Amino acid sequence: MARDLLLEIGAEEIPASFIVPALDDLKRVLIERMADARLKHGEVRTFGTPRRLAVWVRDVADAGEDVTKEVLGPSAKAAFDAQGKATKAAEKFAESLKLSVDALGRTTTPKGEYVSARVEEKGRPADAILQDALHTAVHGINFKKSMRWGDVDMSFARPVQWLVALLGDTELPVVFGDVKSGRTTYGHRFLSPGPITLKAPADYEATLEKAHVLADIGKRRASLVQKVTAAAKAAGGQLLEDEGLVDQVTNLVELPSPVVGRFDERHLDLPPEVLVQEMKSHQRYFSLVDAQGKLLPRFIAVSNTPVRDEQLSLRGYERVLRARLADGRFFFDEDRKTPLGDRVEKLGRVVWQNQLGTYLEKVERFRSLAGWLAQATGRAGEAATVERAATLSKADLVTGMVGEFPELQGVMGREYAKAGGEPDAVALAISEHYLPRGAEDALPTQDAGALIGLADRLDSLCGIFAIGKAPSGAADPFALRRACLAIIRIVLGRGYRFSLSAAVDEALGLLAPKLANVKRKPGEAAPREQVLEFFRGRLKALWGEEHRTDVVEAVLAVGFDDLVAAKKRLEALSLLVGHADFQPLAAAFKRVVNIVEKQGKDVAGGQTNPQRFTDEPEKNLHTAFTQARDKVGVHVRADDFAGALREITGLKPAVDTFFDKVMVMAEDKDLRENRIRFLTEIGALFNQVADFSKIQAEVAAA
Length: 702
Prior knowledge:
Elements: E1 3-11, H1 16-36, E2 44-49, E3 52-60, E4 67-75, H2 76-79, H3 88-96, E5 105-109, E6 112-121, H4 126-139, E7 160-167, E8 170-171, E9 175-176, E10 179-182, E11 184-186, E12 195-197, H5 204-210, H6 217-234, E13 238-239, H7 243-250, E14 257-262, H8 272-282, E15 286-289, E16 295-303, H9 310-335, H10 340-343, E17 351-353, E18 357-358, H11 359-376, H12 383-392, H13 400-404, H14 411-419, H15 424-432, H16 447-466, H17 480-494, H18 500-515, H19 527-543, H20 549-557, H21 563-577, H22 582-599, H23 616-637, H24 641-649, H25 652-661, H26 669-686
Parallel strand pairs: 7-10
Antiparallel strand pairs: 1-3, 1-7, 2-3, 4-6, 5-6, 7-8, 9-10, 11-12, 13-15, 14-16, 15-16, 17-18
Helix pairs in contact: 1-4, 6-7, 8-9, 11-12, 11-16, 11-18, 12-15, 12-16, 14-15, 15-16, 16-17, 16-18, 16-19, 17-19, 18-19, 19-20, 20-21, 22-26, 23-24, 23-25, 23-26
Catalytic activity: tRNA(Gly) + glycine + ATP = glycyl-tRNA(Gly) + AMP + diphosphate
Subcellular location: Cytoplasm
Subunit structure: Tetramer of two alpha and two beta subunits.
């Protein structure tokens, strides 16, 4: 009979950000190990709180499935002599499988004929499989930081206190350090501190709930949201939306219990971002706003236990926040005593990256690059704002407030610029050049901030690639993937038209003094090519989420120097691909491209000579092509790629007839090369939109 499996690791308070990744590791390893052992099972659920990580697997089979395998032995020549008699090699092979020589067969492989045998491999018992799997899972969790304790020669996020490992009502032996598994778990640290004996995995969630622990993260999150939303409404406000804070608090408690407090209204003259950050970063308090989104002098703190004396509890929460807000006001008042412009010089004492220099040097580079981008995008009228905002853009890094709250970079620059009398456009650009900070974040609302943000990120990308510190695997310490995606989002969102490769060249040129002594590995691509290929990879991943992969490849293959044009080409081609008659259309055009790729390299350059055409179909195709080429050019210049594709697809009948009636690879060399040049010109017409050879379509032999 199938039985349920439960694994629980009890520990001291695990950091909130560690819990979900650790559960993912546990679940992944268990599923992989059971799959390797052919052990069938049902649904897999995870549970996690600050004190526990658990996995529950339903309906685990009693044993792994049996399987019959074909095992290859020595070659037939080595296994049997000229008379067909078995050699020692055959006998030893049969003996190793506990078979007779007569039970051996023969199998033909690409390397020749080999002796083989079919053997049945029995599935191992579930208990044995799971003992190994649980051991691997418990010891294989990857934490960002681990610790050791006592005499235990192992590390974990926090000291492990207990282990539960049950298969049905049977205990499985698992050991971690000095802790051995059993069936004893623990409930809420304060509300149900005693040991709890579990009879079976199916009892786990309900048993813990009775012990004041909501072990299911999703249910605990829903409970938290419901309670804090209700508390905010009762306090006359509404919750300031912050999904990240909700996730964090969810994994800080086992039983969420909110209380509503207040702070002195005089602090409302501080920038709202400062107040929110003070409440969120240090105290994990939720902020409240009114119906217009204005911050209220209220907050919600979430306790891990129901509050018995609410006033006493609130006094503690409010006292801590009062001190934090006093610190914030001190930083704000002190920072404003020094104009933002006077802080720029101090950036020369703050290193951005050892090989690439200080923040002051970085600012000087991307300020120049932002000016270049303003010209290239036709925003020369923004040059003065770009110049001033770029100069001040990083000056808040040397303020007390940003030193305390790095998350307020740009926000404080905006506030201090306003306090110093800078134009509103300059202040806004300082703040917005950091946007978007993430995939879901808003884009800059005006050009100056957007252009400075592009320049800042391009400087980072080009500089880091040039010194050989490009992202590798999951490692991306300079967040270059995020920077690249932000550039793409800004360019497309703002509709900027400029040459990406020229911008990369400009950035590398500004970096040149810092790169003079950088040594490159033999055969390593130049920084320019590396950066552009990095963009290509990000575009492929981003656009591949909404469009066919082969269509994305086809568009990128003919270039993405103008990102806006590339996106328009992708959208137009994606619409065409969706038509029922696209398959034969793509096959016809792909045939053109394939012939050019195979034969074009042997043909000298030059123009097609229409006078050399001898067959009516090729003359007709040339006439149709000439007319289409002019119209396609008009459409492309107008960014009407759908119109360009309509003209191109109109060539299909003439292309089909050409291939049916005309021998491209004629014996006459001049005739053959003239036809290949003609097909090359047709292929170039297609390539104004996409490389059709990348499109998945059935193609007749060339």
